[in-house]
Amino acid sequence: MASPFHSSFPLSPPSSCHGGGVLQFATRAATSPFASYCRAPAARDGGDDHDHDAGILQALAFNGNGSVHGVLDPGVEEEKEAGDGGGGGRRGTRIRARDCAKRIMGLPVEERVKVLDLLQRDDGALTVSDYNDILSALAMAGDHDSAVALFRALRPNGVTPDAQSYATAVQCLCRKGAPDEAKEALDEMVARGFRPTVATFSAVVGCLCKRGRVTRAMEVFDTMRAVGCEPTIRTYNSLIGGLCYVGRLEEALDLLNKLKESPKQTPDIYTFTIVLDGFCKVGRTDEATPIFHDAVRNGLSPTIFTYNALLNGHCKEGNPLKAYSLLMEMCGNAACPPDRISFSIVLQALLRAGETSAAWQAYKRMERAGFEADGRALDTLARGLCRQCAANVAALADAREVFGKLVASGHEPVSYTYCLMAQALARGGEVDAAVSLLGEMARRGYALRKRAYTDVVRALCERGRARDALRVLALVIARDFVPGRNAFDALLGELARQGRWPDAMAVYAAAVKRGVLVSLKRHSKEALLVQEQTETRESSVQPCN
Question: What are the start and end residues of every segment in region (Disordered) (predicted)?
Fold first, then answer.
């Protein structure tokens, strides 16, 4: 008995010789929130609809009615219906209807109830229109394999597919990534006298082009025009994208130029972007730039994808400053400001090229735009700014800012970054911070670079802090590192200047024990000379009696 919830309106528009309704199906399948439902029924509140669906599922699980012909991976049953008296029977592969029902439980209520009611009927009572509704429901639920399997089982079981059946199957084959099978189904559809819609043709062209089957896509394109179906700009974009994908850039550019002169179709910004991106990916960004300007002259507004393709092209060809200039141009363009990808492309390229100043400016712009740089970029930028401190102490504040954000982001700086930061702090006069950073490195088990702790020891000795310098040297020795000659010389010189000869002898002995050649005699002579000069100055300023 028909369910009281059975609707007299079909799930999709009636079938026609032109396959109408397939375009609506494709649009709904792409936008439906239930399009990816295949795993488990969505949670719903209790109600009549839910009770009705549950009742149907329970009934389907225990009775023998409502099974539909088809081939599905799960729930497949080989059955043979035969009668003793000449009634014969149909032998074929059958699927349990309850398995179909479970897959479509995520569809909207009206469509769900419609299909579940169809599944309760006996096989012989289902028409091709009913099967089309089931096919569409499976496609909308994202179960493209089941929809294709059911379509293939229609004709062997006495049901002749119509234009809508073919169109749904073609769309499902395209979405499951089977371009050759999709083309075969399309060819069969045309051979049987059906006229596919532009959406069906375009789907096959796009699917073939994504797999690099451009020659076969051209065949579909020619068939499309032969049956009087005018390609849309989306069809042309798919074809141009396929040509670029296989490296046939000149043909893609020729097709773009023909479209510019065509009275029927006008290229959009995506058409220009596809060709432009194709040239950029093969290192021909200089040829892509005129395409960009051509699009602007045609009154089109470049999208973020257009800009990012150019930025990526400039950076890959080793021209990060050109990319930086374009990025700054984008920052002044309110219609299409740079996104996080734009900043990341340019920032990383500038850092690889050693353009630290430009990278710092790009980072500040990125920060003002509300985007965060990744830890790797921050690490590299911090190292670059630390190196700049050797020539420009003013860069120390920038280096400290980036290093602080790097640590705060949870990204652990590498040992080299720690060492460069300690060197920069020592050279910039922030000796206590440098000593603290070396201690942090030791606690984390990082290797201490020779230049880093040598610069810290020198900075301490220059300030007369021999005791602290001695502690740093002891920290290095405790880590089983052998301090360099410059570190020992700096400490010996300061101890000699202060007249702390026992400490100087101990440091000298530690150096000799570790095979480091230093000259205590030289430091003693320098210390004596300094002492004599000091005594001379003091005697010259004493008043005469």
Answer: 70-94
